[in-house]
Amino acid sequence: MLEKFKAENPDGQLLNYTSVENMGKAVVRYLAELNLDKKGYSIRTFRKTFITLSHEFGMDSSVVAELVGNEHLSTADCFYNKISISKMNEELEKFDVRRILNN
Q1: Which of 51, 86, 87, 96 is most enclosed, with most CB atoms within 10 A?
Q2: Domain spans, the chain
Q3: Distances, alpha carbon 8 to alpha carbons 17, 19, 88, in Å
């Protein structure tokens, strides 16, 4: 499917759409070709995944918000950030109760 897509876009751009709506329609078509259209995926699925992984990899929230076109930082943080169990465990390890008790 990617070979077909590359042939349709000889300029080399992976995403060459003039509007979000057109890109959304293209994603729906590609998902249908992959028989994934019935699974509830959409262009927003990829956006949410990108935001979540960006936070997981430690990217700055302001950069992530800019990349996805959010006006406010809180939009990406509140609505799209699903924190993984491993990331929560990693952060909890920073909470050292012994240090608190020794003070």
Answers
A1: 51
A2: 1-41, 47-103
A3: 12, 18, 43
